[in-house]
Amino acid sequence: MLSVLNCLKSRITTPQRLIHTSAVQCRKQAGRYRPSIRGDKPLTYEMANGPHQIAHRKSWNSWNTANLEGGLRPAETVVEDLFIRKFMIGTWHSLFTSEVIIKRQHNLIRIAGIVKRSISARKMYFLIGYTEEMLSLWLQCPVKLELQTVNDAKDVIYKHI
Amino acid sequence: MLCNSRYRLLRIVAKFSTDASNTEFRVLDLRKGSSENANQGRGRFQKRTEGGPQLLPPRETKMPIDQDWPSVWPGPRTFHPASVPLPVRQGYPAKDLAAPPGKYANAELMKIPNFLHLTPAAVQRHCQAIKRFCTPWPSELTNEDACDKYFPVQTTTCDYLHSSPSIRDPLARIVTLQVKLSSLPLEGRARDKFLRLVQERYNPETDMVTIVVDRCPTRKQNLHYSHFLLTVLYHESMKEESWESEKSPLDNELFEWQTSASRAAIDGLAVKQKLDPDYIQLYSEALTNLMNKGEDQETLADYKESALQLLGHSRN
Questions:
Q1: Is the CB of A104 less than 8 angstroms away from the CB of B106?
Q2: Domain count for chain A
Q3: Is B91 in Cβ contact with A57 (below 8 Å)?
Q4: Block means of pLDDT (10 residues each) for chain B, length 316 residues?
Q5: Is residue B113 included in any domain, yes or no?
């Protein structure tokens, strides 16, 4: 008892520096997928490679010169790309099986991607024309849609985890 | 009910008659789709058959090997697997010893820029097409010296290409004007004044005067301003102001033997005793070197040697 009291006393009187030390948790979660219990979660190539693999195993989804040294309009380009992605996802609802790829050359915007053939060709042609027309009107520059079609969403699956 | 059964009978008859022309043995199919097409219900919404809608085979399978490729792929375009008859693969294999992902349904191939429109044949065709807009090279400009002689002023501007809707770049306004100093008819005092005016814009190694103009907002204005600057510099150098005669030898940037006190002293000495003109020449060169290049072991030794020779105290 006495020793405990002494110990307490010494703790109160002597100055102490209390530093909480523990291992740093270098957990990275963004853009990564947890394996499922059965190991049957389908991943595309884009999903299977994490953000750290950009420029190693996969490339960027936006191609432009805005963020290079001396590039113009970096902020506007990002906002426009966000808008284009939102528009594409909403207009081509549940049709895109890949990310929306936006490539800019001079004032031309090329939008590429892989879509499912679950709607008729007529509807798809209408959607292409509609998208190009509306985006050209809003962004004030020519927009081209260059799509590839697949029969099934399974065609773009790279692996299961 | 009666009406309905009659309608069905009519449909059967109609089916019977259409099939008659195609098949030899006609089968009366009372319940349409009962045995063969089990998955095709009679409902309004039919389940999509396996394999999707009937599609033509990819274009690449029908391409002849000697086709005209520049007309198949005339301009820059995102990669399309059905149009490119090459067994291209891209990506990292999912498992070891597996092949990389193929070209169909491969988004990676659609991302990277391709140069399928820049085949040698396409480039040659393009050059042929724009050839009629080219003019022959002037026959007088046979070599680099002739170019410098007839076009002494060199103007450099930069155009910037961005992937953005704007074609403007503030850096495009900058104009660099270069002129060889020897191409300007400047001698002695005028040349000295010109060099004093342009300061660090003159490169003595290449004999080039470089004027960079970026103060005006447009390139055209900057170009005019650079021409104006060159004109003004030249005319100011040619002009001799009254105060320029007040320049003393000490203001010279380089030592000059002809106007120096040393020459006066040597001339005075030459009156009293005979001096070898060759040695005077050597002495003047050594002294000029010493004053202009600075004191180092070599120039000092040269100076000492020439002075001793001049005064007849050479050790040789």
A1: no
A2: 1
A3: yes
A4: 46 47 68 54 53 75 92 94 93 87 93 94 95 92 89 93 87 95 89 91 93 95 96 94 84 83 88 86 92 91 91 71
A5: yes
Using the Cβ of A136 and the Cβ atoms of chain B, whether some distance falls under 8 Å is answered with no
* Residue B95: inside a domain: yes
A103 neighbourhood in chain B, CB within 8 Å: 78, 111, 113
Question: Which chain B residues have a beta carbon less than 8 Å from that of A61?
Answer: 111
Q: What is the pLDDT of residue B20?
A: 46
Q: Which residues of B288-299 are buried (b: 16+ CB within 10 A; e: fewer)?
A: bbbbeeeeeeeb
Q: Which of B55, B161, B166 sits opposite A73 (nearest CB)?
A: B166
Q: Is residue A147 part of a domain?
A: yes
Shared domain for B261 and B237, answered yes or no, is no
Q: Which of A72, A96, A135 to mutate to test the interface with B (most CBs of B within 10 A)?
A: A72
Q: Do residue B162 and residue B237 come from a single domain?
A: yes
Interface of A with B in 67-96 (CB under 8 A): 70-73, 76-77
Residue B179 lies in a domain: yes
Encode pLDDT of B242-274 as tens digits: 988 888 877 777 888 888 888 989 888 888 888
Give CA torsion, residues B253, B254, B255, B256, to 10 deg.
-110
Strand partners, B53: none
The encoded tokens of residue B310 equal 């001049």
According to the model, what pLDDT value does residue B33 have? 57
Residues in A touching B94 (Cβ below 8 Å)? 48, 158-159
Q: Which of A58, A148, A158 to mutate: most B Cβ within 10 Å?
A: A148
Q: What is the CATH number of the domain that holds A40?
A: 3.30.70.1350
CA distance B231 to A52: 58
Structural domain contains residue A126: yes
Quick count: other Cβ atoms within 10 Å of Cβ B6?
A: 10
Burial code (b: 16+ CB inside 10 Å, e: under 16) for A56-85 equals eebbebbbbbbeeeebbbeeebeebbeebb
A91 within a domain of the structure (yes/no): yes
Domain total for chain B?
3
Q: Which CATH number does the domain housing residue B210 bear? A: 3.30.160.20
What is the domain extent for residue B115? 85-125
Size (chain B), residues: 316
Residue B53 is predicted with a pLDDT of 58
What is the complex's ipTM, to 2 decimals? 0.81
Range of the domain at A38: 33-160
Task: Determine if the pTM surpasses 0.80.
Answer: no
First-to-last C-alpha distance (Å) of chain B: 144
Q: What is the pLDDT of residues A23-78, one digit of tens each?
A: 888 888 888 999 999 999 999 999 999 999 999 999 999 999 998 888 889 999 99
Contact residues, chain A, for B107 at CB < 8 Å:
44-46, 98-99, 101, 113-114, 156
Note whether residue A15 is domain-resident.
Answer: no
